[in-house]
Structures are given as C-alpha cells and as structure tokens.
Amino acid sequence: MEKIYINGTFRDSVAASSFRASNPSTGEALERDFPVSEWKEIDEALDVASSCFKEMRSMSPEKIATFLDTFADLIQSDKDALVDLAHEETGLPKTPRLGDVELPRTVNQLKLAAAAARSGSWSMPTIDTKANIRSCYQSIGPVCVFGPNNFPFAFNSLAGGDFAAAIASGNPVIGKANSSHPATTKRFAELAHQAIEKTGMPKGLVQLLYRTSHVDGERMVGDPRLAAIGYTGSRNAGLQLKSVADKVGKPFYAELSSVNPIVYLPGAMKERGEKLMDEYVASGLMGAGQFCTNPGLLIMLKSQEADRFVAGVTDKYKSSPAGTLLSKSVESSLVKSISILCAAGAELLTGGSKVEGGRCAVANTALRVTGQKFLSDPHAFQTEAFGNAVLIVVCESMTELKQVLEQLEGNLTAAIYSATDGSDDGIYQPIADELAQKVGRLLNDKMPTGVAVSPAMNHGGPFPATGHPGFTAVGIPASMIRFAKLTCFDAVRPSRLPAVLQDSNPQKAWRSVDGVWTQS
Amino acid sequence: MEKIYINGTFRDSVAASSFRASNPSTGEALERDFPVSEWKEIDEALDVASSCFKEMRSMSPEKIATFLDTFADLIQSDKDALVDLAHEETGLPKTPRLGDVELPRTVNQLKLAAAAARSGSWSMPTIDTKANIRSCYQSIGPVCVFGPNNFPFAFNSLAGGDFAAAIASGNPVIGKANSSHPATTKRFAELAHQAIEKTGMPKGLVQLLYRTSHVDGERMVGDPRLAAIGYTGSRNAGLQLKSVADKVGKPFYAELSSVNPIVYLPGAMKERGEKLMDEYVASGLMGAGQFCTNPGLLIMLKSQEADRFVAGVTDKYKSSPAGTLLSKSVESSLVKSISILCAAGAELLTGGSKVEGGRCAVANTALRVTGQKFLSDPHAFQTEAFGNAVLIVVCESMTELKQVLEQLEGNLTAAIYSATDGSDDGIYQPIADELAQKVGRLLNDKMPTGVAVSPAMNHGGPFPATGHPGFTAVGIPASMIRFAKLTCFDAVRPSRLPAVLQDSNPQKAWRSVDGVWTQS
C-alpha cells in the first residue's frame, strides 16, 4: 500500500481499507493501492499542522516565498514523470494539455504566489496614522485542500491554486488527494518534501491523505485545529462538508457547479452565425467539456440563423470524436445528467449514451429545449452535465429570453455575443445587468473556457457556483485573502507591529495610508 | 397600531398580533403598539426591494451619495426628537451618550458612506490592461438589517453602520427593527422617507418591519429575493438564521458575542496597577457594560498587585451606582449568565442579583476564578455576561496563563497591558501571536470599548464573535464589501463597462492597474 505523508515522513498508513484509481483510456484499475486513512492519522496530521502553524506565525515572507519558488523549480524539473503519471490517471493528453499548458500554469501560479508573499501587498495593509490604527490580512491557520478531478496539476490539492494561495498567505496545508489521481498527488508530495528539506521549512507545512471515510472527512472539517477549507468538487459532497464548517463559522471556499450560460443576441447570429458555431464547438468539446467554465447552456432567439446554428452544432458533435472522460464516475454522472435533462423534456439531438468499450467516454451530446419548456422547470434544465454535452435554449421572443435569464442560478461565468455594428446595443445592457448579478465573470464575444491567472480574474460567483460571491479561486494575489483573517492593531507599539504595518514598510508593499495608496 | 413602511408608504399592517417596548428606567410598557408582520407583507417588501434593486443597478453613485447626505442632514435636524425617543426606549442618557456621541457618530457614518460611494475606491477596481480583464465589487442585491439593542442610532437597522454600508454599495435595505426601540426606528423610517422624496430615489430603497414570527424570519432570510443579511444580536437567534442563509450560500454577516479578554502582564501591574484598575473600571462600567467590545474577561498572574487589583475592582463595583440596562431581557440574560459562571465554579466577589424595583438593573458584578479552574471548563467560563459584570482569571504561572489563552474562543478584541520600561517585552510576543489569531483587533495598553470609525478599524473576528473572520462591521469603506459581490468583466467592450472600470476613471477612484495603485 502507498505511504501517506505526515509530519515530514512518508509512512505506512494504519488504514484497514484501500482504493485504486483507474486508467480512463482503458477503463482498467491501476496497480497501486492507496489507503483510506483512519481518524488516528487524520488527528495526527491536524496536530502537526497546528504546531507548524505556530512556527509560521513568526516566519518571514521571504522564507515562505523561497519554499514556493523551490517547489516550482522542482516541479519544472520533474515534468516528464508528472506528465506520465497524470496522463495515466486522467487520460488527459500529454501534449499540449498536460505538459505544455497545465504544468507551466502550475509552475507560474506557484511563482506568482511566491512574489505575492514577498511583496506583502496581498494583505491590503491599511493605516490610519491619526488614530494609530492599522490593519491587514494575516494567515488564518491550517488549511485543508480538496482538489478536483479535472486539473491534476493546476488545481491539485498539493500544487494547485488553492495550495499556492494557502501557503503564500502563511498557512500549512493538508492535501486531500482527488481519488482519481492519487499517484500524481503523491509525486507532488515527494517534491514538496524535497523543497521543505532544501529550504528548512517545518515538517508539517505540507501533508497528504488520499481518502477518508465520509464521517472522518466531516469530523476533520469541523475540527477546531483546521482553520479553513478549499474545496473543488461535486455539489453534494461539497454542501455536506460546507454545512459542517458553517456550523462553526469556519470559511469553506467551495467551487461546486456551473453551466456558464452563453447568450447569442440576434445581430451577432445574423452577422457571423457560422463563425460563432465553430467557436462554440471548439470551446464546448475542448478537454471533453470537463472544465468548470465549460459553456453548457446556450440561449438564443428562434430564427433561421438559430436553426442553422443548432443543426451545425449537431453535425459537428456527431462527426467529432468523443474525448476521454476523467473517470467512470464522470462518465456515469454525465449519462445521468443527460437523462435528467431528457426526462424534463429536452430533445436529444445527438449523443446521450456511453461509447462502447472500456474507455471512459460518452458520445458528444447536444440537446434542445424551447424557452417555454425551460421556464416550466428551470431548476431541472440547469442540471450540470459535466463533460461533452450542451443544452440549447431557443426562445420565442426577447421577453421570453429575459424570463429565462431571470431564472438562472448562480454561475461562474456568462458570455454575451453581440453584433460588431452596434445593432444589438439597444438590448445589451438589461441582459448584461441581469447576468452580471448572477455570475462571477461576464464576457463579451469570448468563450469562458480560458481562466487567465490575472490579478483581475474572478473565478467565483454566487451560489451554487460557489459558497460566497465575494471571493475568487484563481488570480494571485486576490485568491490569497480566502485563507486569511483580517487583523487590526490598535495602539500597538511600533516595534511589535507586523513588518507590513511598520512605518518603514520594509517590503515596500502597496498600502492604503490615510486613504492614499502608496509604497512608501 | 403603528404603521409599517413598505413601498414608500406608511400603512396599516395586516398583523394579527402586536408588541410594545418598555421604558427600562421604569420597567413599564410604553404606549405604542407595533405589529408583528405576517408573511404577506414580508413577501411584498421583498418584491418591492427586488424591483428597486433593478433600478439601482444603473443608478449613479452620485445619486446614492446625495440620498445618504440628505438623510444624514435630516437626522441632524431631528436630533432632539430622536434623542427623546431613544432615551425613553433604551434608558441611555440623553447626554453625553445619545445626543453628543452616538447621534454625531451616526451622522458621520452616513456622510462617510456617501463620500465612499462617490469615490468608488471602496469597490477595489482591479485592471489587467494586457489581458483586458477588469474586476470590482458591485452591489449584491436587497439586504436585510437586523439591528442590535445597544446602539439605537449608530447600529440602528435603518440608520446605522450596516444600513449605511448596504445603501452606499448600491442596495435597498429592509430594516428589521430591534424590538426594544421600535419607535426610534420608525422615526428613522420617516426621515428616510423624506430623504427618498427629496432626492427622487425609488420607493423600495428603505422599508421597515418591526417584528416577524421566527418561522417568517427564517423564511425571509432564505428567500432568493434577499441577497445578504447584516445581523447584530443574540448568538442563538443569529445562529438559527445564519444556518438558513448558509444552506443557500447567502452571505450572513453576524456579530454574535464576545468577552474581549484583557491580559495584564506582571511588569505593567507592578508599574501602574492602581492606574490600570481605574482605567478598567471606567471602561467596564461604561454604558452599564453594554458594548460588544466590553472587557468581560481579565487575565493576570497571581501576585500582591493582582490581589490589590481584584480588591480595588470589587470595592469600586460595590460603590458605583448600577447603570440602567437596556431591557428586562438584558437584565434576565445577565443574571442567568452570572449564575452559569457561578455554577461553573467562579467566586462571586460582589453583585450578582437584580437591583430591587422596576428599573432594569443588576448590581455591578465581579467574579474571580483561578486559571486551573478556568481550564477545567473553558467553555462555561467564556459565557458572555452582557452588561456590568466581569470575570477575573488569576493564573499561577505564565505557563498556565498561556494555557488559558489557548482555550479562548474567537473574540472581537483583546488587549495586552505591558510595562513601559520594557520589562514585559520578553514575554509579549507569543501572547500577542496567540491572541491575534483569536481576535479581530489587538490593542496595547488601551481598553477596547471605543470603536473608531476608521478605514483601518476591524470590528469583526473569528467565530463565535462573528460568522467569518475576514470582514469588519465598522469602518467605511471596508465594511461595504460585505454587501457586494465580486464581478469580473472579461473582454467586455469599453463603453459597456461600469464607470469605475472605464479607462477614463471618471470618479478618480483608487484602482490597482497592472499591479500599481493609482487614481489616474
């Protein structure tokens, strides 16, 4: 059985049970056995993380940054092994996806987090010199990261965005590996171990568990030694864990589900319907649709252009090969979601069933529903079909289209396509206002699939997309304040202030001093 | 029966039941009857707030600011009537407290909120010019404010900090009056009505309900037409409402309870024990101790100075008149909390029972417990005794004192008193680190009772002080982002961007542009 990583050592688990991941390209179970940890070792991980955090409270940001840079370099050097492991466990192509896109993104995120820790600007230092009151965000305490299945590197619980943000803001991390890529995650733990040794970081900075029982998972989330949670995964499991954290007022940052509506205004359809169709298909089928920001709900007005668009999407979906899904569980969820949409009254245009054979795959699936039908059960028609499936809503009128928008739940993104000649401008604003209220990111004439790692990015949104509409999971430094608490120092003697709040501003952080942002 | 304020008109409620507030100075019920609203009118208020919010989405910040300024001026002009009403309902002194401190603070908060709305800097505009991604905080939707009993002006649900923050960030407010001062709150509704008429604001901007059943209160909090809640009040009721909001991922900003530990280091006690005692007594008995930041837990080492301190506090508590409490319910809660502390093993030094007569009052109460005893049931000994009561923990050793600190729950504030000659400096930092992790605001040599309205203030803290350690309820503009959502505009055409994100920056807001904070 594979070893867990606790208190700086890889050691045998006391687990009574184990699990194996599968290779989605063949459907066959992989050879390595991973333990389902018992409470005893979860308990120890929490103790170790607590002690580590005490050491980190007085640690220099430079030391934390050096760890992140070193870890990033080790990941870069280990690229081939990581790509091989992740390909085997996820079926994602080695190139360009894993090796040329996701691994560089992961390294970049860690380096950006290092730079943010060094600068201190992330902590929003605010100083009122007259009242001698100063505040900033500070590390919150041990963080547990539950990573998703769809980004084995960039959202990995031990190397991805939440991990980078939690460490950079000064917290130790307990990673709960995603069960579909435990070997990849273990490899990150080995590299983190090397980085910890090289940079003299405390042993509990990074720890790894592969799986726990539901009961123990909830117990861990509710434990007072754990300060915050980053969770990306299924809505049901996430809500269950969130309810435990909510009861004790503990921040639980959840990214749960999103159908990412795309609204095509009539002028745009007239002007460049064919082009829009190609753009959509490329985005919709990319990575077999397994992105949190995959455009899963297209909304348009009934017209000849709409008919052509739907027919075109159907043809392309039929003729394009179905991508490999991440796991059997993604495959079965997708088939189930499609059947829910059909049962609610959506018309199946193509696809809908598993591709025969061992490989995890579902035929590219397109569904259609009228606006009127959608309005008869808006909740059911917003069922997320995670993967290569899309629901197209065709509305009779602009009034009906707006009614559809009013029924939308919270989403990560929404996009509006409009004519370049201004012919849609008269109807744009009310639609944009409605959507902006419902989503974390609004796009114009652009698919939402790409999530740039930018300080201005918001990868978040109202429930049920996430658990709180004020936070982003992507973008350094903004994502860091999730794993921080606001602390105010009132009349605290100058030498006792955190460096970032001292008059000398040794890090040259951006600070708001008496209402003026300055680095001096 | 008094009229409710819905959809811009004062009208009769359909309520089947009603309630009266009492005059705490006499214990007698006041004459006016206030309705307990039925769901039908709550439902209408939510509808009206939704429509109002749609109008507000495209409203200029200048218009919102003008309303806030106008409202502030009307409050200033109505000072005498407001002070009379609040005095009658709360027993708080007309002067200096109500007329000279709290009313000016309330007016000032509204004016600061107006200025913040005008400047736009509160919304933290962040622009990535290369990627053409821009984000900022934007209004979240209708907000319900549950105001507390202890600040009839400065935290009033229709004039206080949460109200100002919610309106300034662009949201309509439904006020749920505190049941102990409904007439004061109604007066604010009347002034808000005048300000709405004068400035041409939509009718649903401000609405007022006095009370609802528990069931309807929960239904309102969970209703999708309500976007966020500001709640200051009792822990039990707050947690019940919070659980409803949590289930649907809706921000519920709760300020629940706090004992505000004060740690006296031995050097400070030796140096100026007498002075510290006087400073404590003034702060502890101010307003009959009815402040969220009242210092309710004093922690010190056993010593001759500590003995003198305890004896001095006991004497002063005995000889000082007991202040009037806000209501019978505060009185009975206080007596109950004291009995919980005694039952856990605290020694009653003075006070502990109701002052005879109709007036709401409890004798000034001091209790003592050893560190060892405290550690035997740290939860019970952190029972908040809201009012003029204090628990003094006397520890045998610095080790024991640190153990006591480790057992502290989340609080709004903590203060550390240390010697001016540096003799406590060797022990300061680990104690400060432990406390800073547990509280929203750490003070040095200063009582926490004053909560300055400063951009650097944090009136917040880890659970159970509040529901999330990243937000402040006092301090403009920081408190505004509670009632906002983060919205990102990705490749959105320039003319369609909110003003605060446009290149021209018409409001001259502070913005982070490519990592540099600038007003240009």
Write a structural description.
The structure is a homodimer of 520-residue chains. By secondary structure, chain A is α/β, with parallel strands linked by helices. Chain A has two domains: 34-119 and 133-256 and 469-480, 3-Layer(aba) Sandwich (Aldehyde Dehydrogenase, Chain A, domain 1); 261-444, Aldehyde Dehydrogenase, Chain A, domain 2, CATH 3.40.309.10. Helix content of chain A is 39%, strand content 19%. Chain A has 14 helices and 23 strands. Chain A has helices at residues 39-56, 61-77, 79-90, 94-119, 161-168, 182-199, 214-222, 235-247, 266-285, 304-319, 328-344, 371-376, 398-406, 425-438; strands spanning 4-6, 9-11, 17-19, 22-23, 28-29, 34-36, 126-128, 133-139, 143-146, 173-176, 206-209, 228-232, 252-255, 261-264, 297-301, 347-350, 365-370, 389-395, 411-417, 439-444, 484-490, 511-513, 516-518. In chain A, the strands form six sheets. The first copy, chain A, has a seven-stranded mixed sheet, sandwiched between helices. The first copy, chain A, has a five-stranded mixed sheet with strand order 21-8-7-22-23, with no helix packed on it. In chain A, strand 12 (228-232), helix 8 and strand 13 (252-255) form a beta-alpha-beta unit. In chain A, helix 4 packs parallel to helix 5 (161-168). The radius of gyration of chain A is 24 Å and the shape is globular.
